[in-house]
Specification:
The protein is α+β, with helices and mostly antiparallel strands. The chain has a single domain, classed as Beta Barrel (Lipocalin). The protein is built from two helices and eight strands; from the N terminus they run αββββββββα. Strands 1, 2, 3, 4, 5, 6, 7 and 8 form an eight-stranded antiparallel β-sheet that branches. Strand 3 and strand 4 form a beta hairpin. The radius of gyration is 23 Å and the shape is globular.
Length: about 160
Amino acid sequence: MPFSGSPFHRLPVTCFLGFMSLITLLALSCGTAYAEWVALEKQYQSPGLRTVYIDSATIRREGNQVTLWQLIDYKSMQGNVGMGPAGFGPHRFFSTMTQKQLDCANKRLRLLAFTEFSSHMGTGEPNDGYVDQDNWLPVEPESLNQGLWELVCDKP
């Protein structure tokens, strides 16, 4: 018997729907992996101004040093209305992502990288900032960095 028509005409509808569902699931699973941002403890937040998150999947410990990513989502736009870093346009942002390294033994930290974003939760146009990675700062009491230090360093 000669072949006529599409090979899908011979498949039962349930097989075709199952195949299409599999293709859809594969396509969706190939997308970008998003961070699991978890809000820092309440006492280190500024309600109405910002919410601070960390991505617990990025916490890496090497001896007394811990590296992590932090996200600050601002309730209102931040930055200067004037010229941006490239010499043109406004430099405004709603969120920042910062990679920090904490020295648990000496209770200090340094910035490794940061990016400001034009939209909330690390979305929109990114704008990378300059970081002096040699500049260690003390962890100030009752500060946001104190909250980070307690989370990753002050554990038995």
